[in-house]
Specification:
Helix content of chain B: 10-25%
Structural class of chain B: alpha+beta
Number of domains of chain B: 2
Order of helices and strands of chain B: EEEHEEEHHHEHEHEEHHEEEEEEEEEE
Distance between the termini of chain A: 19 Å
Strand order of the largest sheet of chain B: 6-7-8-3-9-10
CATH architecture of the largest domain in chain B: 3-Layer(aba) Sandwich
Number of helices of chain A: 12
Strand order of the largest sheet of chain A: 1-2
Order of helices and strands of chain A: HEEHEEHHHHHHHHHH
Number of strands of chain B: 20
Mean pLDDT of chain A: 86
Oligomer: heterodimer
Radius of gyration of chain A: 24 Å
CATH class of the largest domain in chain B: Alpha Beta
CATH topology of the largest domain in chain B: Rossmann fold
CATH architecture of one domain in chain A: Orthogonal Bundle
Low-confidence stretches of chain A: 291-296
Mean pLDDT of chain B: 88
Low-confidence stretches of chain B: none
CATH class of one domain in chain A: Mainly Alpha
Largest sheet of chain A: 2 strands, antiparallel
Distance between the termini of chain B: 31 Å
Structural class of chain A: mainly alpha
Largest interface: A-B, 21 and 26 residues
Shape of chain A: globular
C-alpha cells in the first residue's frame, strides 16, 4: 500500500519536476557557467576562458596601479535593496495582519468573499498598476489634489521618484502575499484557545500577544518571506516609481545584461542574491520546523 | 454546603433572531453552593453548556442575571471573573510548555515568576504529573492533557471551576479513573465545581447535587439519591437509570388512603406522602429493582398478576420481563440468591409485588 501510494505520488509530481528541471534548473546552471567566464566583448562570455572576475568585481575594483581595492558601490545597492525590501515587508505586515485578522473573524461566506477581493489586484497587469500609482502619487496627482482641496497645502507631495514611492508601490503589489498566509494560519487557529486565554484572565491585548501572535507566527514568517524576496528582485516598480534614480538589485542585474554587456557580472550578482535568499530561507525553516503546526 | 456562590436568576438565552431564533435557556433559576460538586446533566441541546458558558462569561444572557457571591456578573468579561474553565477539548496552548500553560493564568494576575513556577509545581504534584513540566501538550496522552487542563484551571485558585464535559474524549477505563480524580481534587481544593455532562452514571458517581435539564429548563435539582429514587418528571426517571412506566387512574381504596388502578381488579396502594396533581391517566414510574416476583397465588397486597415473557441472566442478578394482565409489560430485576436453581421459568404465571413507596407519580 505504501509503495503504491509512493509511486502514485511520484507520477503526480513528475510533470512539475520535469518542467522545473528543464525551465529552471538548466538555465540556472547555464547562468552559473556564464558567471565564471571571462567577459565577452559583445555580451555573453568567452567560452572556455574561466575567470572569477564577476565575483571579485562585486567587492573590489582595480585601481590605476592594478591593485584590488574595496569597492562598496554594489554592496550599497544590495544594502539599499535589502533596506527597501525590509521597509516594504514591515508596511505590508502592518497593513496585512489586521486585514487577515479581520477576515478570519468573519462568517464563512463573507470570509471567502473578502479573500476573493484580496486577490483582485492580481488580475491587472503590473505595468498598468504601476502607472496608476504614478498618477496617484505625482505632484498635482489625485492624492496631492485631494489634500490641497481639503486645505492641506502640500506644495507638491514630492513623493514620486523617491524610495518611499517605490516602497508604497511594492507594498501594494505584494500585500496579498502577506495577507493570504497570515489568514491561513489565523483561520485554522482554534478559537477555543483564545477563549481559554480570556478564561485565564488575559484581556484582548494580552490574548493577542501571548496566544494569537505566537500561533500565527508561521503564517507571519511565511508572509514576510513571500513579500521580502520578490521585493529584492523587483524590477518594474523601482524603474517606474523610483524613476530609475534608485537602482535596486534587479535593475543592476538587468543593466549588466543590457547596457553594460557584462553577462558574467550580471550572472554573478544573480548568484550572490540567490545565496542570500537561500540563507534567509534556511533560517526560516530552522526556526519554524520545530513548531507542532508544521508537522504533517 | 452553606453559602450560595453562584446564583442564576430567571436566566434566559436565545441565539439568532427572526425565523432562525433558537431558545437555548428559558427562565432558569438555580443556586450553587460553596464547596459543592454541582452537575448539570442532560442530553445534547438541553442548554447545559449554554448555562456553563453564561457563568464563564463567554455568552451574554438574554434575560435574567447571574450572581457570584451576591455580585452581578452579567457585564463582567470572562477575564475579570474569578472563574476558570476546563474545556471539552482541553484547549491547551500548543506553543507553550506544560509549565507555561499552568503559569499563564498566574502571570495574568501579575504574580511573580518564582511564585508562579512554585504554584505550577504544586499543581503538577496535585494532578500527579510532577515530571511533565517541560513537555509540550502534543507530547502528552489524552488523559495527561486532561490533567494539565485541570492544573491550569485550578492554578489561579478560582472561586468556581467550570468543567465542560471534560471526560467525554477519554476511554472508559481512563474516564473511571478521572471521575475519582476529579472528586478527590474537588475535596482537596475545596473549590466549587460546576460540571456538565450527558453521562448519568458520571453524574451519579461524582456529584453532591445534580440538575437534570431538558429543552432549556431545569426539571429537578437534588442529590443523586433523590434524583434516582424520587424523580419528579417522566424525563428524569427515564434519563437516569431504568424505569417501568405505567399509566392508571386514581381510586379511593377501602382503607381511606389512595390507590391507583391499572385496570379492572389491578389496583395498588400509593405511599401516603404522594399527592398527584390529577386523578385520571396518571403517569407513574417504578424502578425494576424495587419489584419482586412471587407465586401467583401468594396472599400479598399490591400484587399484579402476569406472565414471564423473557428471562435474562446477568450473574449477580436476573432480569425478568413480565407481561402484566391487561397488556403492559414491566421489567423486574432481582438479585440472584444462592443461585442453585432458577426460581421462575419463562411462561410461568406469577405475581409482581409493587411496594407502595416504589411508585413515583410523575409530571409528563
Amino acid at each position: 500500500m505504501g509503495k503504491l501510494f509512493r509511486s502514485k505520488r511520484f507520477w503526480l509530481i513528475a510533470p512539475a519536476v520535469v518542467y522545473i528541471a528543464f525551465f529552471m534548473a538548466v538555465p540556472l546552471m547555464q547562468m552559473a557557467y556564464v558567471s565564471v567566464l571571462e567577459r565577452g566583448d559583445y555580451g555573453g562570455g568567452n567560452l572556455g576562458a574561466f575567470s572569477f572576475d564577476a565575483y571579485v568585481n562585486f567587492l573590489f575594483e582595480r585601481d590605476l596601479m592594478d591593485n584590488l581595492v574595496l569597492n562598496t558601490d554594489y554592496i550599497q545597492i544590495f544594502v539599499r535593496s535589502f533596506g527597501l525590501s525590509a521597509m516594504t515587508m514591515v508596511f505590508a505586515l502592518l497593513l496585512g495582519f489586521p486585514t487577515a485578522f479581520y477576515i478570519s473573524m468573519q462568517s464563512q461566506g463573507r470570509r471567502n468573499f473578502l479573500i476573493f477581493l484580496v486577490t483582485i489586484p492580481f488580475w491587472t497587469n503590473i505595468l498598468v498598476r504601476n502607472y496608476a500609482w504614478m498618477l496617484l502619487l505625482r505632484n498635482g496627482g489625485l492624492i496631492d489634489g485631494v489634500l490641497n482641496w481639503a486645505g492641506i497645502e502640500t506644495g507638491g507631495l514630492d513623493i514620486l521618484y523617491t524610495p518611499y514611492a517605490v516602497s508604497i508601490g511594492l507594498t501594494y503589489t505584494y500585500l496579498p502575499f502577506m495577507v493570504l498566509p497570515i489568514y491561513a494560519s489565523l483561520e485554522k487557529l482554534d478559537h477555543r484557545l483564545v477563549e481559554a486565554a480570556f478564561d485565564l484572565g488575559a484581556d484582548k491585548r494580552r490574548a493577542m500577544k501571548r496566544v494569537i501572535l505566537p500561533l500565527a507566527a508561521p503564517g507571519i514568517a511565511a508572509g514576510c518571506i513571500l513579500v521580502f524576496i520578490p521585493c529584492l528582485g523587483a524590477y518594474v516598480t523601482p524603474e517606474l516609481l523610483g524613476g530609475g534614480k534608485f537602482m535596486m538589485i534587479a535593475n543592476l542585474i538587468g543593466s549588466q545584461f543590457g547596457a553594460a554587456r557584462n553577462w558574467p557580472f550580471g550572472a554573478g550578482l544573480g548568484f550572490v542574491l540567490l545565496a542570500l535568499v537561500l540563507i534567509a530561507m534556511l533560517a526560516y525553516s530552522l526556526k519554524f520546523k520545530s513548531l507542532p503546526e508544521e508537522k504533517i | 454546603m452553606s453559602e450560595v456562590v453562584i446564583s442564576a436568576q430567571s436566566v434566559g438565552k436565545t441565539f439568532g433572531s427572526g425565523a432562525g431564533k433558537v431558545t437555548a435557556l428559558k427562565d432558569v433559576s438555580v443556586d450553587i453552593f460553596q464547596n459543592e460538586f454541582f452537575t448539570m446533566l442532560g442530553p445534547s441541546g438541553c442548554g447545559k453548556t449554554t448555562l456553563l458558558r453564561l457563568i464563564g462569561g463567554f455568552e451574554q444572557a438574554t434575560s435574567g442575571k447571574i450572581l457570584l457571591e451576591g455580585q452581578e456578573l452579567n457585564d463582567l468579561p470572562p477575564f475579570k471573573r474569578p472563574i476558570n474553565t476546563v474545556f471539552q477539548s482541553y484547549a491547551l496552548f500548543p506553543h507553550l510548555t506544560v509549565r507555561q500553560n499552568i503559569t499563564f493564568g498566574l502571570e495574568m494576575k501579575s504574580i511573580s515568576r518564582d511564585a508562579a513556577n512554585a504554584r505550577a509545581d504544586e499543581m503538577l504534584e496535585l494532578v500527579q504529573l510532577a515530571d511533565y513540566g517541560d513537555r509540550v501538550p502534543n507530547q502528552l496522552s489524552g488523559g495527561q492533557q486532561q490533567r494539565i487542563a485541570l492544573a491550569r484551571a485550578l492554578a489561579p485558585a478560582p472561586k468556581v471551576l467550570l468543567l465542560d464535559e471534560p471526560l467525554s474524549a477519554l476511554d472508559l477505563k481512563l474516564r473511571k479513573e478521572m471521575q475519582i480524580e476529579l472528586k478527590r481534587l474537588q475535596t482537596e481544593t475545596g473549590i466549587t465545581f460546576v460540571f456538565v455532562t450527558h453521562d448519568q452514571e458520571e453524574a451519579l458517581a461524582m456529584s453532591d447535587r445534580i440538575a437534570v435539564m431538558q429543552s432549556g429548563e431545569i426539571l429537578q435539582v437534588g442529590a443523586p439519591r433523590d434524583i434516582y429514587e424520587q424523580p419528579t418528571h417522566r424525563f428524569v426517571a427515564d434519563f437516569i437509570g431504568d424505569s417501568n412506566f405505567l399509566r392508571g387512574d386514581l381510586v379511593d381504596a377501602a382503607n381511606g388512603g389512595r390507590a391507583i388502578s391499572f385496570g379492572e381488579g389491578r389496583v395498588v396502594n400509593l405511599a401516603a406522602d404522594i399527592t398527584p396533581a390529577k386523578t385520571k391517566d396518571v403517569s407513574v414510574s417504578i424502578r425494576p429493582e424495587r419489584l419482586t416476583i412471587t407465586d401467583a397465588n401468594a396472599p400479598l397486597d399490591n400484587k399484579l398478576g402476569g406472565t414471564i415473557s423473557s428471562i435474562t441472566y446477568f450473574g449477580t442478578d436476573t432480569t425478568y420481563r413480565v407481561d402484566l394482565d391487561g397488556g403492559a409489560p414491566v421489567t423486574v430485576r432481582m438479585q440472584n440468591g444462592d443461585g442453585a436453581t432458577a426460581p421462575f421459568g419463562k411462561g410461568d404465571r406469577v405475581g409482581v409485588v409493587v411496594p407502595a413507596e416504589a411508585i413515583r407519580v410523575l409530571v409528563d
